[in-house]
Specification:
- This protein is mainly alpha-helical.
- The protein has two helices and no strands.
- Helix 1 (2-19) runs antiparallel to helix 2 (24-51).
- The radius of gyration is 16 Å and the shape is elongated.
- The protein starts with a helix and ends with a helix.
Length: 55
């Protein structure tokens, strides 16, 4: 739930920035990259746990 609230706040901040004159492409790319980085890290952790042999 915490992550969802952070994502919503970041999206609202991006919209406010765009409305105030920020570059649309830069803001949306930054937002997309944050989302992708987070989910890629989760996938890597899952994949690593799946294929790591217990010691």
């Amino acid at each position: 739930m915490r992550r969802a609230a952070e994502q919503e706040k970041r999206a609202l901040d991006a919209l406010a920035s765009i409305h105030a004159g920020a570059h649309l492409g830069e803001e949306t790319l930054a937002l997309s990259n944050e989302f992708t980085d987070h989910h890629t890290a989760r996938f890597r952790a899952w994949f690593r746990a799946l294929f790591t042999r217990p010691s």
